[in-house]
Amino acid sequence: MTTEEQVLCLCRDSLPPDWCRAPNNAIPMAWDDFITATKHSQALFLNRRQAEQELRCKQLIPYILLRDLNSNVAAYPRHGSEIRLHGLWSAAIGGHVNAHDHQTELWQESISMGMQREMQEELPGLQGQPQFLGLINEEESAVGRVHLGLVFLLNCPQHPDNISAELQGLCWLNQPEIAARTFELWSQLALSLLPKG
């Protein structure tokens, strides 16, 4: 018997109203400010299938940009099961925070656990502590309306050797090369939070 994946969510009405402003936005923010703003937010773990339909909740998705010493950003063409993303590029790795990432009383600490797990799944052996840049949100699509992105940046002293099949085609792009490609909306929003230089 398999147990359905449970994912970390925050109740939408317990979030600051400007975070979920339509149609989409990117909000620069320090981690301490995120913690303060969500101190009284109602957090819960829902079955993923239920969470995808639950408009009263936002699933939290750590979304990690990777940048090398030359300020090039890792990016990869989207492929796989999500037809809506075919032909687009992504500039980040990310995924849900699962119930088994929740090892302390503070749900906020589960975010770091989930992020480290996701990094090891996608880029085994990747080391480092990503820096929080802010939030991204989009209300244009059914998928966007039930997710809230937490954008992080990991500066990589060297390019990872081990890459998962999902990141096939990963390359490191400078700013003109980024501008020449069409990125999925979340990546566009995340890149807007990237510190210059």
Q: What's the quick description here?
A:
This protein has 5 helices and 10 strands. It is α+β, with helices and mostly antiparallel strands and 197 residues long.
Set out the fold topology.
Blueprint: E1 6-11, E2 24-28, H1 31-37, E3 43-47, H2 48-51, E4 57-68, E5 73-77, E6 89-90, E7 93-94, H3 107-122, E8 131-138, E9 147-156, E10 171-173, H4 175-179, H5 185-191
Parallel strand pairs: 4-9
Antiparallel strand pairs: 1-3, 1-4, 2-8, 4-7, 5-6, 5-10, 8-9
Beta strand %: 25-35%
Discrete helix count: 5
For the secondary structure, the number of strands is 10
* Helical percentage: 10-25%
Largest sheet: 7 strands, mixed
Count of domains: 1
The Rg value, from CA coordinates, equals 16 Å
Question: Mean pLDDT score, rounded?
Answer: 92
Supply the CATH class. Answer: Alpha Beta
